[in-house]
Amino acid sequence: MAPPPSAGTSGVRDITRRLSEICGPRFARRAGPADEVAGSTARWVAVPGGPHAAAQVLRLAARHDLSVVPRGAGTKIDWGAPPERVDIMLDTGRLAGIGHQPPDRGTAVIGAGTPLRAVQATLERTGRRLALDAPSPGATLGGVLAADEAGPLRHRHGTACDQLVGLRYLAADGELAEAGGGAAGLAEARLLCGSEGALGVLVSATLRVQAVPAARVWVTRPVWTPLEVHDLIQAVLAARLDPAAIELDLPVSTGCRPRRDRRAESMALHPSMTGRASTGPAGTGSLVVLLEGGPAEVAERTDRLIGLFGASTVVDRTAPPWWRSYPFAPGDTALRLEVPMTDLHAAVYALRDAAGGPVPVRGSAGLGVVHAALPGAMAPSRVASILAAVRGVLLARQGRCVVLAAPPAVRHTVDLWGERADLAQLRAVKQHLDPTHRLAPGRLPGGL
């Protein structure tokens, strides 16, 4: 791609000076090696102090034909496709804060650059919370919305985008827009969810809040096979236990179910074992159900769940160590599989068959949304063949498999998204909101 018109030395100095005037000398600079988006390095970093300054940055970019890519905390900056170019990285760190709302209002207005854990800490002082538990440590609210990231609580409460009441964002031309206040407004707001900053720069969001549950209990059952997981989840849902989350962890070491040890089961039920946690056989996976609510009714639901899960059940007041985390590490090829819950076992078996062995899988099994990891050292052609096989199985089951992150060689070889039935609609939305393709060009499916 040809360099933008302002690539000359005098143009660079002029843009650097203008960004410093808009954001302040300490909040505008030439980008460094660490300022990259999925491998594409930025030229400038701007940290505007508010929506007005952010709008000025966008107008400056429009005048000089520069691209703009928003960044929150950068926890998912390597997710998705690399932009065609990153001229200005617009850091939202100063678009932060929590608007004052009466505790009985039921909503909170939160700046896009506000770390989610800071939001939760502030709300908890008044006995409230956002029903959001995104796995990325330090993620900002804007980053969670832009990636449509969700954690275990999505089972009962949906994603952050499902909990939106309203949204303020800047269009590509710097115009401040508001969406919300009715079905049409919410539909517009949710268009920006998962858009990776390619449709607008998020400024703030209004979300529903709720009272912090009085009691929380994690009930764990060891599992060995995806089909066993399927049957257990069906039983949990049929029992109407109103779980807040149903999470699955299948490590690579999960093997065949060991022989049933009736003596060990009897000992586990002995009164002397009350309150003690069984570690379970080595190499097992875990199915964990989170129950929330009042102490008495949580206790009653826990007893019923123990009856369903049997003697190997473990009850705890704290989450397991892997809770609210991904099974992949930096450098891995990170996958997200989405399929109707009744077909999740077929998706996991298909992934295992294509990979030639167990693959670590973790996520919201009760919704059929899980993540998996392939080794970063795996050849790109091998990753491509695994994706083709898995997507073939999922297509017949109205599911999909998306590559969230991958090493550069894999990212440039495989189709990250797979088939998208909504591509024409996405193209129309991009043309409407960003006709010059100034915002994160190339980040969306279809190179949009």
Write the layout of secondary structure elements.
Blueprint lengths: L8 H15 L4 E3 L5 E2 L2 E7 L4 H13 L4 E4 L14 E6 L15 E5 L4 H9 L3 E2 L11 H7 L6 H4 L6 E7 L5 E5 L2 H9 L9 E8 L1 E2 L3 E9 L2 H13 L6 E6 L11 H7 L16 E9 L1 H15 L4 E3 L16 E6 L5 H12 L5 E4 L4 E6 L5 H16 L4 E6 L2 H4 L11 H11 L15
Parallel strand pairs: 3-5, 4-5
Antiparallel strand pairs: 1-3, 2-3, 6-10, 7-11, 8-9, 8-10, 12-14, 12-15, 13-14, 13-17, 16-18, 16-19, 17-18
Helix pairs in contact: 1-2, 7-10, 10-11
**Mean pLDDT score:** 89
Q: Reading side by side through the largest sheet, how are the strands ordered?
A: 15-12-14-13-17-18-16-19
Q: Using DSSP, what is the number of strands?
A: 19
Shape descriptor reads globular
Q: Give the low-pLDDT segments.
A: 254-282
Q: What is Rg?
A: 24 Å
Main sheet characteristics: 8 strands, antiparallel
Roughly what fraction of the amino acids lie in strands?
15-25%
| Helix content range | 25-40%
Total helices: the number is: 13
Q: Would you tell me the structural class of the helices and strands?
A: alpha+beta
Q: How many angstroms separate the termini?
A: 15 Å
Describe this structure in words.
There is one protein chain. With 448 residues, the chain is an alpha+beta fold. Helices cover 30% and strands 22% of the residues. It is built from 13 helices and 19 strands. It has helices spanning 9-23, 51-63, 116-124, 141-147, 154-157, 183-191, 226-238, 262-268, 295-309, 344-355, 380-395, 408-411, 423-433, and strands at 28-30, 36-37, 40-46, 68-71, 86-91, 107-111, 128-129, 164-170, 176-180, 201-208, 210-211, 215-223, 245-250, 285-293, 314-316, 333-338, 361-364, 369-374, 400-405. It has an 8-stranded antiparallel beta sheet. Strands 1, 2, 3, 4 and 5 form a 5-stranded mixed beta sheet that branches. It has a 4-stranded antiparallel beta sheet with strand order 6-10-8-9. A hairpin with a 5-residue loop joins strand 8 (164-170) and strand 9. Helix 7 runs antiparallel to helix 10 (344-355) and helix 10 runs antiparallel to helix 11 (380-395). It starts with 8 loop residues before the first helix and ends in a 15-residue tail after the last helix. The model is unreliable at 254-282 (pLDDT under 50).
